[in-house]
Design brief:
single chain, 71 residues, two-stranded antiparallel sheet, 2 strands
Length: 71
Amino acid sequence: MITVPGKDSCSLCIHILPNKDGWIPCCEAYPDGLPKDYIFERTEVAKLKECAPGFHFEPNVELQRKCGYID
């Protein structure tokens, strides 16, 4: 099954990093791995004031365009 990330998911944030060990999603706020609620989109990261101290969701506009979320 292939899943498509929501337009406000962590995978479309400018802070996302390459997967740790090839499969663990991580970002600048969570370099050791994203919380499970973030991965499975149970938490609306775009609505949080901060994901972690000093970090908040910032959309990667170029990637959102490629995914068709914006023109």
